[in-house]
Amino acid sequence: MRRVLTQPKGVFEALEEDKRNGTKGCLEFIVDQAPLSREKRLDIYANGYFMRLLECMASDFEVVHRLIGPHVFRSLVAEYLSKHPSKTFSIDDVGEHFPRFLRYSETTNEMPWLADLAQLEWLCYLSIYAHDLPGFDRGKLAKMSEDDWAGATLALDSSVRLFRSSWSIDELWELEELDLEQAKEDQCRLVVYRRNFNATFERLEPLAFEVLAMAQAGFSLGTICEKLAGLLSPGQEPPPLMGWFQDWIECGILRDVRRAGEP
Amino acid sequence: MAKPAVLFPDLGFGLGLRPDHFAQVLEGRPSLSWFEIVSENFMGEGGRPHYVLEKIRSQAQLAFHGVSLSIGSVDPLKKDYLKKLKALVDRFEPAIVSDHLCWTGVEGVNLHDLLPLPYTREAVDHVVARVSQAQDFLKRRILLENVSSYLTYAHSEMTEWEFLAEISKRADCGLLLDVNNVYVSAINHGFDPLEYLGSMPRERVGQVHLAGHSTRKTPEGKTYLIDTHDHPVCDEVWRLYEWVTRSFGPVSTMIERDADIPALESLEQELDRARQIHQETFRAKQDRNPAPTPFERTAVVDAAGAHPA
What we know:
- The complex is a heterodimer of chains A (263) and B (309).
- Helices cover 49% and strands 13% of the residues of chain A.
- Chain A has 263 residues and is α+β, with helices and mostly antiparallel strands.
- Chain A starts with a helix and ends in a 5-residue tail after the last strand.
- Chain B is α/β, with parallel strands linked by helices and 309 residues long.
- Chain B contains ten helices and twelve strands.
- In chain B, the strands form three sheets. An eight-stranded parallel beta barrel of chain B has the order 1-2-3-4-7-8-9-12, surrounded by four helices. A two-stranded antiparallel sheet of chain B has the order 5-6. Chain B has a two-stranded antiparallel ribbon with strand order 10-11.
- Chain B is globular and about 50 Å long.
- The A-B interface holds A 1-2, 5-6, 28-31, 33-36, 38, 40-42, 44-45, 48-49, 52-53, 85-92, 94, 128-132, 158-159, 194, 197 and B 40-41, 43-51, 68, 78, 80-81, 105-113, 115, 118, 150-156, 188-190, 218, 220, 222-224, 226.
């Protein structure tokens, strides 16, 4: 019955296929009773299954849906669900593998950036429901001695996701309709985070992105500074680290500075 | 004969909480005694859902209504799901925890739909064991909702209402009686909704759902109903609710709306109708005791209006 209800070609085709293959179908278990045929009764469930998941994915991947249009989106979702049937108890998680699916889909060959766009939407979804952390305690900073700084680590908000794309994904995100010429190859580095309960993202300059990536990986401030120095070109001005930290505290990206050994 | 003691508190009249109404509800409008949430929508780690729930918990009672327990499936109960549900229940202490008497998936795949079970003795045994397992884990009694259905199985050995009653008694769980679902299934399968409602063990009915549905026609012009929750409660369901109120006494009642969600005020108006039915019923009851017996059911229904099914 599950196979019949989730068949992308529909219940009627699935039942026909059973007949052709001589497979024992589920039809004989269904009571044949007016006002509906047994096939139609199964079809109500099959239709509900697909429409429910389609609606959910159109909401989770709103930008992808808008840019490729409802028809292409619908056909991609049908193909996706046949390869990745939902195994999660929350319907909202059904699109977990969609970005990866798009990366290898022949339908989207002309849009190599689409998978990245879907990935960004998925990161926004994850960011929204990340666990809550207390706000930054500025008083704690004042209590840190000079000796503490080199070994200290930066704790980012649990909603922070770092995303690197080879396309101008942030510009594509803003498009009202698809314009393939707008898709430019570009080293786009984004930080996704939650602000006022909504997911948002910002483009970062490469060095700022590296600092956040190193902080997320748990490197100490001393190590981050050393590695950062190694990334600078000869004669390049040192980056405005303190300014970045200030901004990241303000917008909730940076949640804590922990002394070495502090949990 | 003394009336059996009810197992669940009467919370009064509530609404299904939906994101469209978060802001208004947080501002204390409307001032309702309870709200029902869909448990799975609040199982994330954090963010707005938990904030909203914290706030609402401080001003009203909560009921948690799940859609993924899949109590009838032959797959083992999902431990990770139960753990998340328990964490949510322990944190927010809802007055009621419910799910559906159905299966939602099999072989690890979730169909995200509420599929009916075969009404067999084997299925009763299977569900009773799983309800006990879930209740032991959650350390509380749960309620199971009757689902609307579009098919029944040839090997069923009893009616849906006998199945529901048997499970609730043997598993010692509660029932969430969805009056609209009874009506939808009655039209789709051709049974008498009053026979269904009259067979419910009163003491186990802890909550009532009222909702709307969509009417469809077959190519031959025959009517069938889809439980879409996108319309106001229809007159036939209101009449059945009147019957439930007269027969069962006060039960926590709420309006459930999941699509084409109207302004909160519109749902409040529907809730007012439920309140009015409740008030009129109990005014009338005070005038003429005793409560209706099974033999009086027909008369009560006739007074409320003949039912098309």
